[in-house]
Specification:
CATH architecture: 2-Layer Sandwich
Largest sheet: 4 strands, antiparallel
CATH topology: Alpha-Beta Plaits
Helix content: 25-40%
Number of strands: 4
Radius of gyration: 13 Å
CATH superfamily: Dimeric alpha+beta barrel
Structural class: alpha+beta
Strand order of the largest sheet: 2-3-1-4
Low-confidence stretches: none
Strand content: 35-45%
Length: 90
């Protein structure tokens, strides 16, 4: 079942994102549940958040995955929303 993880970075936290990016990408690769992912961008093209689609069985599993993300552990996010998502197109 797909779940969307929608993350908004804290203002001024771009360096935290950059410093933690390699660990975040390793986590995505190692856990093997991310179906799609990418950053949100501001008007200047700087990363300001993340959207990830996870293929897990339960909301609790999606929430656990989100909590284990190195970005979350580094305190990058001001807000994280995890909710079931239904793929309709694509």
């Amino acid at each position: 079942m797909p779940f969307a993880v929608i993350c908004r970075d804290k203002p001024g936290a771009l360096q935290v994102r950059l410093d933690t990016r390699a660990a975040h990408l390793d986590y995505i690769r190692d856990t093997g549940v991310v179906q799609m992912a990418g950053p949100f961008l501001d008007a200047e093209g700087r990363m300001t958040g993340s959207l990830l689609i996870l293929g897990v069985e339960t909301l609790a599993a999606a929430q656990d995955w989100a909590a284990g993300d190195p970005y979350a552990k580094a305190g990058l996010f001001a807000e994280v929303t995890v909710q079931e998502w239904k793929r309709v197109i694509g």
